Amino acid sequence: MTKIKIRSNPYNREISYLTMDEATGQWVDVRETDERSRLRETDSERSFLPFKIKEIITIIIKEYYVGREKVQLYFEGTQDEYSEVEAVCESDDVKDKIELIRTNTILENARFIKGDIKEIFERVNPVIENIMKEDFSVKRGLNKVSQALDDVIPLCVFGNYSAGKSTFINALIGVELLPSGGDPVTAKIYEIRNSEFLDQAKISFEFHGERIEISIEGKEFRVLEGDSETDIVKSIKEEIDNEGSHELYAMVRIAMDILNNYEKKDKEVTERLVKENEDKDGIISHQQDELNKASSTIARLRDNIEHKEKEMESLLHFRYRIYLWHIRKDYEYGFTTTESHGNRGKGRTVRGGGSQ
After folding, report:
1. What are the start-end ranges of the H helices in the chain?
2. What is the reported pTM?
3. Which of 52, 216, 223, 263 has a Cα-to-Cα distance from 104 of 20 to 30 A?
4. Within 10 A of 236 (CB to CB), how many other CB atoms are there?
């Protein structure tokens, strides 16, 4: 009878597979006994077992189930993982091929020890951050641990404009909280969390670089953090007072509407400033183009002048060489040539002497 063991450690994300060596009675890693087994694949060895257990069982049946003799499958891991494996092994197409056996080695379920780990982490985290405050990789690791220990699982909702994100979220939480409509109305990214108390809501945001947190408790409106005299805080309070409604979600919805309106107002101002800058940039760009054209023209003229100067220099040099050549030839034949520069061609005198 073939014996296979699955050893899972979800905390290290490690899964190993072993076979029983009948000769020695020892468990041996599959990687040492079967080079062609698909259980050797890294994908399955570094996976979260519940996500891969059906595939793993299928591979075991295909490679180790022979005839009608069941494969004895030993499992070593957490109780939650064993329950997942057991559910697959009890299915109709597997139960006659696999005999599942629970080993004595049992790892604690994460949900049972999470509270203790979180408590220890919260005590040591400030110490580690203080010692390793310059090491950003350590900070990222601590943030990952903190998020893993958090009881809140974030759900991200994103999509195109007017796709119905706000409407979907309102339906999901059962309250008309976010503004919604046919046109884009939610201009910010929101993070919504469940309040600890039914009669309290907190809204935190940044306004012109300052963090502001307000609390709505029953009929009371309070500023917990930030300047209570900022325009946006005063606008929220005035609108709530004018509305006259002291229903919690109605007051929150008023605050959300004002936050969106301020976002749109800021956007309009930003777009106007950008447009003005673009107009100025266009004028400057046009002037720069004209200047560049003038510079190019001056450069071409300078090149032409330099080229002409070189041509004149070459021509004068060439004529000087011809003049010297004539003098040399005249001297060879015994002639002397003089020329009046004031009236070239008319005051020329040629003297010749024959051989003596």
Report:
1. 30-33, 42-45, 49-64, 79-89, 110-131, 136-149, 165-173, 231-243, 248-333
2. 0.45
3. 52
4. 25
The CA-atom distances, in angstroms, between 298 and each of 46, 290, 303, 309 are: 70, 12, 9, 16
Instruction: Supply the angle between the helices 110-131 and 136-149 in degrees, to the nearest 10.
Output: 150
Give the DSSP per-residue string, 153-197.
Answer: -------STTSSHHHHHHHHHTS--S---SS----S-------SS
* pLDDT exceeds 60 at position 93: yes
- Angstrom CA distances, 138 to 11, 133, 141, 143, stand at 19, 8, 5, 9
Q: What is the pLDDT of residues 206-265, one digit of tens each?
A: 888 888 888 888 778 888 888 888 888 888 888 888 887 778 888 888 888 888 777 555
Measured CA distances, 263 to 139, 155, 206, 212, 353 (Å): 32, 24, 11, 15, 108
Report how far residue 113's alpha carbon sits from residue 206's, in angstroms, rounded to the nearest whole number: 37
As a whole number of angstroms, the distance between CA 311 and CA 304 comes to 10
- Give yes or no for residue 325 having a pLDDT over 60: no
Per the prediction, the chain carries an average pLDDT of: 76
Radius of gyration of the chain from its Cα atoms, rounded to whole angstroms? 45
Give me 306's structure tokens: 């330099």
Q: What is the H or E stretch that residue 106 is in?
A: strand 98-107
Distance CA 119, CA 113 (A): 10
Q: First and final CA of the chain: distance in angstroms?
A: 137
Residue 309, classified by CB atoms within 10 Å of its CB into exposed (0-12), middle (13-18) or buried (19+), is exposed
| Beta carbons within 10 angstroms of residue 243's beta carbon | 13
Helix (H, G, I), strand (E, B) or coil at 16: strand
Q: What's the CA gap between 132 and 270, in Å, rounded?
A: 40
pLDDT, one tens digit per residue, over 145-195 is 887 777 777 788 888 877 888 888 888 888 887 777 655 656 677 778 878
3-state SS assignment for residue 34: coil
CA 252 to chain centre: 32
Count the residues in the chain: 356
